[in-house]
Design brief:
Strand order of the largest sheet: 1-4-3-2
Oligomer: single chain
Shape: flat
Helix content: 55-70%
Number of helices: 6
Structural class: alpha+beta
Strand content: 5-15%
């Protein structure tokens, strides 16, 4: 409410610029990974499969140190404040001829952490098997919020009596929050009345 329309427009433009920059960086990371694998004289089809089939899993922090493996998935050597991150290293390496496996493993160790980190910043990492984002803070979400805020600001500016509209919006929000509080399954909530999406 305190920001004027121009500030909202600038905020949307700034987030769009950050997304474009991060997307370009992600494309560059994948290209660098492809180039490094190509130097080993692997065929293009195998390289495409290796990069396309990188899969991640995560586990919310329960201890200070992450275990090296989560099932067959190997830990990503990237310090994450959110969770322990793993990827399907063994599954990918098994596709590579034996004489190249150690080199491919070194290449993955170099590139996979940056792929994860960039993907997380852009999309909050989309976990297709759960059909939802894993983490709460990411650029695409920031853009949706900023765009919605701009639309709300424009709606309020168009109203003849914006003060009345604000009161109406606040009452609607209060009513929706009360309905959500009443409707949600209390068994899903933790002590902070939040849902841990990494729990079973």
């Amino acid at each position: 409410m305190k920001m004027d329309e121009k500030q909202h427009i600038e905020n949307v433009a700034m987030i769009k610029s950050a997304i474009k920059e991060k997307q370009n960086y992600y494309t560059k990371l994948r290209r660098n990974l492809t180039d490094d694998l190509s130097k080993l004289q692997l065929n293009d089809s195998l390289i495409f499969d290796l990069i396309s089939e990188i899969k991640f899993k995560y586990k919310a922090h329960s201890t200070v140190n992450c275990s090296k493996y989560l099932g067959s998935y190997q830990q990503v050597t990237f310090p994450s404040t959110h969770a322990c991150i793993y990827y399907n290293n063994a599954e990918l390496i098994a596709k590579v001829p034996t004489k190249y496996q150690q080199q491919v493993n070194t290449i993955f160790d170099k590139h996979v952490p940056n792929l994860w980190d960039t993907m997380l910043q852009l999309n909050g990492y989309f976990a297709s098997n759960y059909n939802k984002q894993v983490f709460d803070s990411y650029l695409q979400k920031d853009l949706v919020i900023a765009t919605n805020n701009l639309a709300i600001k424009r709606t309020l500016n168009d109203e003849k009596q914006p003060c009345n509209t604000i009161d109406t919006q606040l009452k609607t929000l209060e009513r929706l929050n009360a309905a959500m509080t009443n409707d949600i399954n209390k068994l899903l909530l933790d002590d902070n009345n939040e849902i841990n999406i990494s729990s079973p």
